[in-house]
Structures are given as C-alpha cells and as structure tokens.
Amino acid sequence: MVxxxxxxxxxxxxxxxxxxxxxxxxxxxxxxxMVCVRVPDESRPGGRVxxxxxxxxxxxxxxxxGDHLRCEQVQRVTVxxxxxxxxxxxxxxxxxxxxxxxVNSRDIKNVPGRPKTDKLDAVWxxxxxxxxxxxxxxxxxxxxxxxxxxxxxxxxxxxxxxxHWARLEKLLEDALIKLSAVVSTLDLVSVRAMLEALIAGERxxxxxxxxxxxxxxxxxxxxxxxxxxxFDDHHAELARMLLDQIDGLTTQIEMLDFRIDQLIAAIPAxxxxxxxxxxxxxxxxxxxxxxxxxxxxxxxxxLSAVERLDEVTGIGRHAAQVIIAEVGLDMSRxxxxxxxxxxxxxxxxxxxxxxxxxxxxxxxxxxxxxxVLGDAAASVARTNTFLGERYRRIVKRRGKTKALVxxxxxxxxxxxxxxxxxxxxxxxLGADHHANRTSQNRQVRNHIRQLEALGYTVTLTExx
Length: 464
Description:
It is a single chain. The protein is α/β, with parallel strands linked by helices. It folds into three domains: 108 residues, 2-Layer Sandwich (Nucleotidyltransferase, domain 5), CATH 3.30.420.10; 121 residues, Helix Hairpins; 130 residues, no CATH class. It contains 17 helices and seven strands. The strands form two sheets. A five-stranded mixed β-sheet has the order 3-2-1-4-5, sandwiched between helices. A two-stranded antiparallel ribbon has the order 6-7. A hairpin with a 3-residue loop joins strand 1 and strand 2. Helix 1 packs across helix 2 and helix 11 packs antiparallel against helix 13. The longest helix is centred in the middle third of the chain and has 33 residues. The radius of gyration is 30 Å and the shape is extended. The termini are far apart.
C-alpha cells in the first residue's frame, strides 16, 4: 500500500484511554445520585448490561454502595463534578478502596438529539467511562485538601477585611474626613490612634494631628486640615463596629497563619531533605552546599518546599503556601510544566480547522492559584531580574495583560521544577541573560541592517 501525501503521524493513547470491563458512573445531585453500573452480560457473550438505580446522598447509603461496587469488582467509578455535591461521593468511595475519578461536567454532556434525564445521563457517562474517553480532574490527597481549606479561607477573610477598610474610608468621606488623601493606607498605627480618638469624642484637628508618629509627624499640618470635618456620634458608632470587625478578622487570619504552618510542617514531602553531615549531600546524592549546584551560595543546609518557593522573585511565604495548597507536592500528576500551565489555564487553546489556525481564550482555571501568580507577576515586573526583563521585552509588542500572563506562566514553570525536584534551588539568570546569549556577530548584523534600512552605508573598523 502506498500512502499519498504526508507520512501519517503516530499518536499513542493516553494512559486513561483504555477499555475498562467493569465501570460505574454517578450522575450527582444535591439529595441523591443516579448510579449506573455497566458490566459484561453473562447471558450474552460479548454483550454489556446496565443496572441503574438511585442512591441517597447520605453517608450510610454511599458506604453501602461502595461495598456493593467492590463485590461487583468495579474497576473505575466516574463522578461528575457538580458544585460541591460530588465531595461526599468521591471521599467515601475513595475510602472504600475504589478507583474514583472526578470529571468536568462539560466533558461528559450527553450527545444532542437524545432525551435529557438523569438515568440516560448516568448510562452515557458509564459508556464513555468504559471507553476511556474521560480526562480525570485533579483532586489532591487528603492532607493537601485540608491545607487548601485553610489557605482559601485565609484569602477570603483577607478580602473581607479589605472590604471593611473600604467601608471605613467611605464612612470617613461621609464625615468630611480626608485622611486617605494624606496617608497611603488607613492600616497604620498613627491613623488607628486618630480614629480611636475620634470615636472617643476628640474633635480638635490639631490635637488629633499630634497623635502622628514617626515620619508621619512631618505631615501634621496636612493631617490637621484633613481631620477638619463633621465627624459626629453616628459616625463614631459605625466606625467602632467596622474597626471591631477588622480586628476580629485580623485575629482569625493570624490563627489561620499558625495552623497553615503546622499543617505544612506535618507533610513529609514539604520538609527539607535530610543531609549527610559528612558529605553535605541529600539522600539522592545531590550536593546541597556548593555554589554551582544551588545557585544560592554556600548555604550548608537544605530548605523546605515553602522556603525554596519563597526564594523565587515575586513569591512570598504566603504565596508559596497557597501554591502548595492548590497544586500539591506530587508533580507526577502533571507530567510536564506545560500540563500544569494548561490545568491552571495560563496558556491559550489551539484552534485549527483546515488552513485556519488561531488561538482561543485560555479559560478560567483555578482562581486562587491564578490570583497568586498574577500578583507575583505584577510584583516581579518592577524588578531588575530575569523575569522582570522578560516582562519588559514582551510588554513592548504584546501589551501589559499578555505580558503579565506570560510572566505568570514562567513563574509556574519554575514552581513545577522546584516541586518536581526537592533538591532544586532557584537561581535568577539576571536581567542581561538574553543580551549575553545573543552572539556579538548577530548583534553587529542587526545594527548594520537597521542602519542600512535608514539609508546609511556602513563600514566597520575595529577600535585600535
């Protein structure tokens, strides 16, 4: 046989794309789930049979279902990711020792032209499960899920505290107090002392301005003008409520910080690798003390996962904790940095039809992780580092938004390598990395080409 045109491309199936003999699919709802078990038909060789029934979404019923599926020798269970209702099914069936996969609901939508019922949806999910056509969603292990609950709540409480500060500023504007026009933020010791004095009944702007401390005392004249307003008793009552809310949130956030540190310290994979005191090597034989290996100088000690991520420009300790909570510590779930970037939706989709080839929108992705990476990219864009120079190179031709996304993706690639190798350390390549990589002859050719385009004739003479 002769093949006309291009040679065919060989594409191997993914590991999850295989025929599975005994499967189960669950169409998840709030109160119950429609379960479909698809197994070989004993009365008809080569045939398949579906058994569909409804199971209440309660612990006892789901545990009984798990025992039944084990008796049926079910090899894989598919659970649809519907809101948070999937959690009870996934956690309990996983605890029963079943191979459970969570799939995105848009990946298993019923084909058009068929009736839409829970029963038919469960049968369809079982059919695509046995063909291995579903890509499972990433569900971290239990200790990472617990850590994620704490870090996400900390993010939510921090945002809520920021909203309370905004409400307080709006209240001061209503009272004709213009403190925010003089100070950078209301979360300062001097500002807090002034607000407490206002709530206590002090209305003299000069007395209030004298409460300024440190460098802010140089602004006493401006503060006196800004504190001249109509702050009355109802403003004081509302300000007291807002400050109490802010203090309560601050206390809760500090408690979360303490618990997050404890949880990460209890995860073995997050700890610093043990070193041999005699050789200065970890258990894998990698040197952890030399400058060339670590890129950080002679440290003499290994670092934990949080500390190694904290070394990356733009990533602080809190951001490192959020990253670990969202992606976990086992990078085998993401075969390459590109897979991780695709999961976070930091790369555009490829859309190709015939001769047309363009990129689509990347998608929403993980909002908590994308938020942390976006903040890190915005922070590193102002630095004189490799990532900062990367931002400045891209922003000239692609704009700020795409440049920030590109830098965020670069940070994510660095994170993948640091988590994939517990002995790896971050080393900044420097802002002049691209300039040093470009050969001198290439730079000369580029400059000559630019001058010739302007109408000049260039003659090169070496400096004496």
